[in-house]
Amino acid sequence: MTNPQNPKDPNSLSLASGGEKKADFSNVQGHVDTVPDTSGGSGGTGGKADFSNVVGKVDGVPDGGGAGAGEQTYTVQKGDTLSHIAQKHYGKASKWHAIFDANRDQIDDPDKIFPGQVLKLPDANG
């Protein structure tokens, strides 16, 4: 027989010693921490997740262009500025704001554009 006091004896640590003993899970407890609903919503969802306020957004590239209707793209070259690009494409350097606004997703500072960036050029009438 094995010595239950000997932790180096693998037989004394086994739960399946001879098939007579079974693990006792009667004292196992579970607990789930949740974040309370502070959105002012309906509250209880019957234990199910509430996805009623989930918002999805897809930024897709349309086939055949890469820019929306009436838009072109321009790849920034070394030495370019938004004013220079606006002058070249619209005939007015002051239209740099339109390029900046159309590219807010990738430009935080209108003075910081980099060679290789592909900018959307909105329709000159827009």
From TrEMBL:
<dbReference type="InterPro" id="IPR018392">
    <property type="entry name" value="LysM"/>
</dbReference>
<dbReference type="InterPro" id="IPR052196">
    <property type="entry name" value="Bact_Kbp"/>
</dbReference>
<feature type="compositionally biased region" description="Polar residues">
    <location>
        <begin position="1"/>
        <end position="15"/>
    </location>
</feature>
<feature type="region of interest" description="Disordered">
    <location>
        <begin position="1"/>
        <end position="71"/>
    </location>
</feature>
<dbReference type="GO" id="GO:0005737">
    <property type="term" value="C:cytoplasm"/>
</dbReference>
<feature type="domain" description="LysM">
    <location>
        <begin position="72"/>
        <end position="121"/>
    </location>
</feature>
<dbReference type="Pfam" id="PF01476">
    <property type="entry name" value="LysM"/>
</dbReference>
<dbReference type="InterPro" id="IPR036779">
    <property type="entry name" value="LysM_dom_sf"/>
</dbReference>
<keyword id="KW-0963">Cytoplasm</keyword>
<protein>
    <recommendedName>
        <fullName>Potassium binding protein Kbp</fullName>
    </recommendedName>
</protein>
